[in-house]
Write a structure and sequence with these properties.
single chain; 150 residues; mainly beta; Jelly Rolls; five-stranded antiparallel β-sheet; 1 helix; 11% helix; globular
Length: 150
C-alpha cells in the first residue's frame, strides 16, 4: 500500500513539472508572422550594390503586409557577391548606428544570410544599412521580412 501511494505522488509530481503553463507575454508588443516577402534586392533594377563605408536607407512599413504602426520587424538579411571582407549593420533609420554587426561578410562565400530583429522608425524610411569593408568594395543586399511586432 505504501509503494502504491509513493508511485501516485511521484507521477503527479512529474506530471506537474512537465505540463506547460501559459504565461502572459511581457512587453508592449505582440509578434505577427507573415509569409516571407522580399523588401530589398539591390541586384534588381534600379538597384545598385552597397558601397563600403556608405549607408543606405530602406522602407519596411506598408510593404509586404507590414503596417505603418509596426514597432519592429523580423528580417532575414543576405549579403550577395561581396568584393571585400567586412560586415553589414542594419538598424532603425535616423538613429545612431549600433556598435555591433548584423552579419559578417566574407568573399569566400557568394551569399550569406542572418536573421535579425530591427526597430522601425515612423515615416517612409524605416531602416538603415551600412557596409564596412576595404575601400572600393561592394556587396549586394537582400532583405526579407518574416514578421513584425505591434
Amino acid at each position: 500500500m505504501g509503494v502504491r501511494r509513493w508511485l501516485v505522488v511521484a507521477v503527479v509530481t512529474v506530471s506537474t513539472i512537465l505540463v506547460a503553463r501559459p504565461t502572459a507575454a511581457g512587453g508592449p508588443y505582440q509578434f505577427y508572422s507573415i509569409t516571407p516577402c522580399r523588401l530589398v534586392d539591390t541586384r534588381l533594377p534600379p538597384g545598385a550594390p552597397l558601397l563600403a563605408g556608405s549607408t543606405r536607407n530602406f522602407q519596411v512599413a506598408q510593404l509586404c503586409g507590414v503596417p505603418m504602426t509596426a514597432g519592429a520587424a523580423a528580417l532575414n538579411v543576405t549579403v550577395v557577391t561581396p568584393t571585400g571582407n567586412g560586415y553589414v549593420v542594419v538598424w532603425p533609420y535616423n538613429t545612431s548606428m549600433p556598435g555591433i554587426s548584423t552579419i559578417s561578410v566574407t568573399t569566400s562565400l557568394s551569399a550569406l544570410a542572418n536573421g535579425c530583429l530591427v526597430g522601425l522608425t515612423t515615416g517612409s524610411l524605416n531602416i538603415s544599412a551600412f557596409y564596412q569593408a576595404g575601400g572600393g568594395s561592394t556587396t549586394h543586399l537582400v532583405v526579407d521580412v518574416t514578421g513584425y511586432y505591434q
